[in-house]
Design brief:
Length: 482
């Protein structure tokens, strides 16, 4: 988010208005934006879905339930749904002409200037059909601005991402397209740019001369559960690594942009993604969870949830080499998995040790690397781990942390969707993925998808297969956690 620009009156159209994403994330986020005063009364939310039995009144009731699940009190959400929500049915055979007529009628009745946002909260297999239907009904043009939001996954390999980009570009210019990666809406992720580029102290150390290695962990304790229908055959490389983890790596590694605006920031991310060497099978470990104990509860293995033959990976760890002047020789390790020991998202920047180890020869003294930990989950914040002398004799060195917690300093943080939706509504593309960025990330991993990578078992509640430790051991390193 750049600066808080005003949101112009608009119509917010959600395609997939009865889906899980709308229920859990979009409706609560739009509601919170209204409460924060970011949306004037000059907006309406038009939910679009295939459900013929719904009308405005029934959709409001459904939305009201969704807001209740999100912890929003009834007395606040009921009038909001009444004032702002509308519903329109479309189905496979069409209905988009009718949708176009309804949009015009609502705009006329409310006095909206024709600014439209189309949010595709749809499964990827129907993206193309929905886009074609929107365009055929003339909804790719509008009297005001017209923006399109697309959820991940954006393709499932390089070829399909390129095809999807070509399709979207038939009707929409890149400046109208907002590809969402919700990690980019998290405060700490945005703060990475401020942290790096507003503090000369860190930026001067941010290179191969001072940094030994970078580890990015996105660990989840949950399993795949009822998302197995989507997840099986997709796997962690596509679901998490190609997007969320690679975005984090790009933000850590990118060069200083020439300005703090969408095109400068996105250009730098594209540049650094292009300088990463595509990992070889030897740089990658795939895993799949078996039965075990997760946070004190006995859980079944992935193959019981999916199928006995499934070889879909629920864990990936890999090593990336960034071949540019800043990072040559500094390995970036990425790791993500379901049913790991705990929920933890963290970026660990390990600095080189001092060139001369003054204290090494003393008994009981083990100076270690300084580490900057950037934590995104469960608590957003930073810790700088460094060595200091423990009081008293003999001389003993101990690792201590300087810490900063967002919540302690600023209270509870907004959900990433609140941030991202406000950015779409104010036309700020900085935190959205450019077409070339999506393709550059797929270019890195598509060769792996074409290989038959062995999938190792790991017990639920662990930190993944043992082979993941060995990947780092080759560089004489250990994962920072456990
Ligand atoms: C989604 C993935 O993009 O991110 C899910 O599809 C994953 O599999 C989720 O659980 C994790 O998001 P967060 O914000 O909870 O870390």
């Amino acid at each position: 988010m750049m600066v808080a620009a005003a949101v112009e009156p608009h119509l917010f159209v959600i395609l997939g208005a009865t889906g899980d994403l709308t229920r859990r994330k979009l409706l609560p986020a739009v509601y919170r934006l209204t409460q924060q005063g970011a949306l004037s009364t000059g907006f309406r939310l038009l939910g679009v879905a295939r459900d013929r039995d719904l009308d405005d009144a029934l959709y409001r009731r459904w939305a009201h339930e969704a807001l209740r699940e999100a912890g929003i009190p009834d007395q606040e959400s009921e009038p909001w749904c009444e004032d702002f929500l509308l519903y329109q049915c479309v189905d496979d055979g069409g209905g988009f002409e009718e949708l176009a007529r309804r949009i015009e009628a609502v705009e006329e009745e409310v006095g909206l200037p024709g600014n439209r946002l189309f949010y595709l909260a749809l499964p990827p297999r129907v993206f193309a059909t929905a886009l074609e239907a929107l365009a055929a009904a003339g909804l790719d043009r509008s009297p005001g601005w017209c923006r399109l939001v697309i959820e991940k996954p954006f393709g499932d390999d390089l070829g399909s991402a390129e095809a999807l980009n070509r399709l979207v570009h038939r009707w929409f210019d890149e400046s109208q397209i907002y590809r969402i990666d919700h990690y980019l809406g998290k405060e700490t992720v945005q703060n990475l740019l401020v942290f790096r580029f507003a503090n000369a102290m860190f930026e001067s150390l941010w290179n191969r001369n001072h940094i030994d290695n970078v580890q990015i962990t996105v660990a989840e304790s949950i399993g795949v559960g009822d998302r197995v229908g989507y997840y099986d055959g997709v796997g962690a490389l596509r679901d998490m690594v190609q997007n969320h983890l690679t975005q984090l790596a790009a933000l850590v590694a990118m060069e200083v942009p020439s300005a703090y605006d969408a095109s400068s920031v996105r250009n730098e991310k594209i540049k650094v993604l292009r300088s990463i060497r595509a990992p070889e099978p030897a740089d990658v470990v795939f895993g799949q969870y078996t039965a075990g104990s997760s946070e004190g509860v006995e859980v079944v293995g992935y193959r019981t949830e999916a199928s006995a033959e499934s070889r879909t990976e629920t864990f990936v760890s890999l090593k990336l080499a960034i071949e540019n002047w800043r990072w040559q020789g500094v390995p970036f390790f990425l790791r993500t998995g379901k049913r790991l020991e705990k929920r933890l998202t963290e970026i660990a920047i390990t600095f080189r040790r001092p060139p001369v180890s003054l204290f090494e020869s003393m008994d009981g003294v083990r100076p270690d690397h300084d580490v900057l930990l950037i934590t995104l989950q469960p608590d957003e914040g930073f810790s700088l781990l460094f060595d200091l002398k423990r009081p008293g004799e003999p001389l003993t060195i101990e690792k201590k942390a300087l810490t900063f917690s967002y919540e302690e300093a600023f209270g509870a943080l907004s959900d990433a969707y609140v941030t991202l939706l406000l950015d779409v509504l104010t036309g700020d593309q900085t935190l959205f993925v450019h077409a070339e960025e999506a393709e550059a990330a797929w270019r890195l991993y598509t060769p792996l998808l074409e290989r038959n990578i062995h999938v190792f078992d790991y017990p639920a509640g662990s930190w993944g297969p043992r082979e993941s430790e060995q990947l780092l051991a080759l560089d004489g390193l250990l994962w920072r956690t456990p």
